[in-house]
Amino acid sequence: MTHAPITVTLTGAGGQIGYAALFRIAAGDLFGPDQPVSLRLLEIPQGMRAAEGAALELADCAFPTLAGVDITDDANVAFDGTNVALLIGSRPRTAGMERGDLLAANGAIFGPQGSAINAHADDDVRVVVVGNPANTNALIAQQHAPDVPAERFTALTRLDHNRAVGLLAAEAGAPVADIAGVTIWGNHSATQYPDLSHATVRGDAALAAVDPAWARGAYIERVAQRGAEIIEVRGGSSVASAANAAIEHTRDWVLGTGPRAAGRWTSAAIVSRGEYGVPEGLISSFPVTSSDGAWSIVDGLEIDEFSRERIDASVAELSAERDAVRELGLMP
Ligand SMILES: NC(=O)c1ccc[n+]([C@@H]2O[C@H](COP(=O)([O-])OP(=O)(O)OC[C@H]3O[C@@H](n4cnc5c(N)ncnc54)[C@H](O)[C@@H]3O)[C@@H](O)[C@H]2O)c1
Ligand SMILES: O=C(O)C[C@H](O)C(=O)O
């Protein structure tokens, strides 16, 4: 292993998703078996012991790809020279709440972290916001980091994407590998739009492989409510699948989506430049591919009236969340 270590900062490292993600990242799941990683764990004082315990266990794994672990409750230290920042630390919702109900409680975390990233992170920093409500928290962080290119701030909708692919595969009786062209549009919330208009199953239109009424009814509801379903069945919000999605999002961003991109794409919430009628500046989910460390939005997809209404509804919610955090004084 001759590469210099990549520094990865995890916030909320003592929490559930942090615990699920740390060992996979340390084992090389982000950048492969030849790329060492140096981990920075950011926690609040109440979470420090849990993070310290995780660090002891990391040492006990003796991963060849793990170059070091530092634990801190100071964001300025945690983001110093960081290349990848996974912003997980924040409160999860409980049964009966929408993710947007966490705006006031969690939004306040992301401004100071954005400022610390702005002041201390490496020039190539890439930020992935997992903490809910993820899109708007990412916007808050991005707005506090004026010296970092806006496109380096993203929010996780890969979990929704994976859910959408998995549920379509199950309905069509096809392996996941035979599914392509699924898109999550908009917000990581109940208004998100899992879109099968351009999806294929074994190369044929998904809307011919499954009942189109299901695809444009129960399916959308099931994907959009999957987080609530997990909370109800598991008694707590998703953990391992969320960590997996954060790793896949980051790996694809940094290493590229590669040859998969022929007719295939994934979904990520990235800063809009006005594509598909999404107002500039919002961090909204799009169909994306990645190469040379940058996301590109898949262009030229036809948007029918049904899709237009749903994309617009989710984007309207993002605009309302942005206005709400402005009113709360959480944006500069
Ligand atoms: N975007 C997604 O797809 C997705 C999926 C699952 C969960 N989530 C969200 O991820 C977040 C974390 O979930 P979890 O299950 O790990 O929660 P958790 O309660 O188990 O862990 C959260 C951790 O964050 C820490 N924390 C709180 N404030 C912090 C701060 N300012 N700096 C650093 N750390 C801080 C807490 O001490 C705790 O250890 C929640 O907001 C949850 O809703 C998002
Ligand atoms: O739904 C939640 O609150 C957790 C997470 O955002 C999820 O989608 O599982």
TrEMBL record:
Binding site for substrate: R93, R99, N132, R163
Catalytic reaction(s) noted: (S)-malate + NAD(+) = oxaloacetate + NADH + H(+)
Active site, per annotation: H188
Xref: Gene3D superfamilies: Lactate dehydrogenase/glycoside hydrolase, family 4, C-terminal, NAD(P)-binding Rossmann-like Domain
EC number annotated for this UniProt entry: 1.1.1.37
MF GO annotations: L-malate dehydrogenase (NAD+) activity
A single BP term in Gene Ontology: malate metabolic process
One Pfam assignment: Ldh_1_N
Domain Lactate/malate dehydrogenase C-terminal: 157-325
Binding site for NAD(+): G12, A13, G14, G15, Q16, I17, G18, N106, Q113, V130, G131, N132
UniProt keyword list: NAD, Oxidoreductase, Tricarboxylic acid cycle
InterPro entries recorded: L-lactate/malate_DH, Lactate/malate_DH_C, Lactate/malate_DH_N, Lactate_DH/Glyco_Ohase_4_C, Malate_DH_AS, Malate_DH_type2, NAD(P)-bd_dom_sf
Presence of keyword DNA-binding: no
Domain Lactate/malate dehydrogenase N-terminal as annotated: residue spans: 8-148
Function: Catalyzes the reversible oxidation of malate to oxaloacetate.
Family matches, as PANTHER family: MALATE DEHYDROGENASE
Protein name: Malate dehydrogenase
Gene source species: Leucobacter chromiiresistens
Encoding gene per record: mdh
